[in-house]
Amino acid sequence: MRNLFAFLTRHNHWFVFLALEVISVILLFQYNSYQASVWFSSANEVAGKVYEANSWVETFFSLRQVNKELTQRNLELEQQMVAMQELLTRAKHDSTDVARTQKQALEGFKLYPARVVSNSLDKKDNFITIDKGWADGVKKDMGVACGSGVVGVVYLVSRNYSVVIPILNSHSNISCMIKGRGYFGYLHWNGGDPGIAYVDDVPRHARFKLGMNVVTSGYSSIFPPGVLVGKILHVFNSPNGLSYRLQVKLATDFGRLRDVCVIDNAGMEERLEMMRAVQDSLKVKRE
């Protein structure tokens, strides 16, 4: 013990120097937005490498279950595609219309496959890190989905990694609608159960049933219309009594999320910009 005190006394100036350095660095990054952003991007790059290595280990032990789920999902999609082709052929009496319709539905969409290297579920503001960045074509505000449904929106991009704000984040705000009904609202997560979220501002005159699917509305440049969000579990009145609040069982299992796709919806963004330009010109004419 005496030797320890002697050592601390003899080298106390080094400890004071290190303490001052730590305090100065904290103050620098906390009160300067530019330095903070540079630090966050660099730290995200390093952390991404660590998370990626850890993710590879976890993925190796879960490949059997993942392959089983993918096989089942592909079979379901093939059955749905065959049924859709039969219905469209009967309605149009022309098989070429089926191929044309499918081609048109995919126009303007690019999908960038990515792997989740970091994910959290137990915080108020959860984040996901994926192994694709601006070098792969990923940009901020692109939508992210998986084979089951919506995941979130790209928030921050570095060269090889991106941070995603998932549905399980208090800042997430995704425009949704009730499939087949057209009534829309905004998806929010209030913490707690990672499998439950809420759609607010659904109009009081809306007609729907429990168990109906909730999908993306397509009213933004982030997600195309029709991407599955979840199913309606329960209906509440809003606090002011002017609208409904829907409790939704999310289609995406965030606890087992591994592979995702980033959606580059450039075509829809161009159409929305054109619509906004038309609205602005109409406002000018009225004034």
Write the layout of secondary structure elements.
Elements: H1 2-10, H2 12-30, H3 33-61, H4 63-92, H5 95-106, E1 110-119, E2 128-130, E3 143-145, E4 150-157, E5 162-166, E6 174-178, E7 184-188, E8 196-203, E9 213-216, E10 228-237, E11 243-250, E12 259-264, H6 266-286
Antiparallel strand pairs: 1-2, 1-12, 2-5, 3-4, 3-12, 4-5, 6-7, 6-9, 7-8, 8-11, 9-10, 10-11
Description:
42% of the residues lie in helices and 26% in strands. It is α+β, with helices and mostly antiparallel strands and 287 residues long. The protein has a domain at 111-278: Rod shape-determining protein MreC, domain 2 (Thrombin, subunit H, Beta Barrel), CATH 2.40.10.350. The strands form two sheets. Strands 1-2-5-4-3-12 form a six-stranded antiparallel beta barrel. Strands 6-7-8-11-10-9 form a six-stranded antiparallel β-barrel. The protein is elongated, with a radius of gyration of 24 Å. The N and C termini lie far apart (83 Å). Mean pLDDT is 76; it is low at 101-106.
Sheet having the most strands = 6 strands, antiparallel, barrel
Strand content: 25-35%
Give the SSE string. HHHHHEEEEEEEEEEEEH
How far apart, in Å, are the first and last alpha carbons? 83 Å
Going by helix content, strand content and strand pairing, the class is alpha+beta
> Which assembly state applies to the chains in this document?
single chain
Strand order, biggest sheet? 1-2-5-4-3-12
CATH class of the domain at 111-278: Mainly Beta
**What is Rg?**
24 Å
Q: Count of DSSP E strands?
A: 12
Share of residues in helices: 40-55%
Give the mean pLDDT: 76
Question: Which fold name is given in CATH as the topology of the domain at 111-278?
Answer: Thrombin, subunit H
Q: Are there runs of 5+ residues with pLDDT below 50, and where?
A: 101-106
Q: Can you identify the CATH superfamily of the domain at 111-278?
A: Rod shape-determining protein MreC, domain 2
CATH architecture of the domain at 111-278: Beta Barrel
* 3D shape: elongated
Count of helical stretches? 6
